[in-house]
Amino acid sequence: MKLLLEIKRYSPLVILIAVLTTSCKNEANPINISPTEESSRVAFLPYYQDESFTPNWITPGTEEEQNFHKIPDFKLINQLGDTITQDTFENKIYITDFFFTICPGICPKLAESMLKVQDEFKTDSDVVLLSHSVMPSTDSVPVLQAYAKSHGVISNKWHLATGKKEEIYTLGREHYFIENDLGAPKSADDFLHTENFLLIDKNKHIRGIYNGLNRASVAQLITDIKALKAEYLDL
Known about the structure:
Cu cation binds at residues 103, 107, 193. With 235 residues, this protein is of the alpha/beta class.
């Protein structure tokens, strides 16, 4: 079976990745779906480990999966003034992005997309959201509180994070690969700005990248979250 996987990048271009052909039923194979069925397009979502976002087809629960790239621990502060770490997201699927509260351009639209995801999984304790401020010097806890109130953010469902700029930028560029930029290396002096959303599984692996400005991509994110939840039921 051949399957075309379309991944949205932080780029002017839409990059098409991978036509997959497989017949081994014990591997992470594409699944059979009807044309009208809303579903993820593969049996297991791919795994990602670098800024190229080349999909790695790994069977969950294997040693290879356990040793694959993971988001490291962090220590940030959310809009409630609470410290959040990877322990906050223990046994959670989370969707993450990077924003700043006074952004006049893409950030309001990204917030609308995140709100759609929040509303879809409002009563689902397995799914949470994490938005990192790329201007932590100005996005203090009170500023994030006001932003949360004006954008319909549900506390402890959608975390707006501030903290040390170096830690946030290192997380974004070196671990989430959020900018998806294969150009020259950047430092904290170079502003971090992207429309990408990432899907992170319960084991802290990156399982998808989506364009938060694109309705179809956000719809696919919602579908893939459901597929990821189903994946855990099968393990």
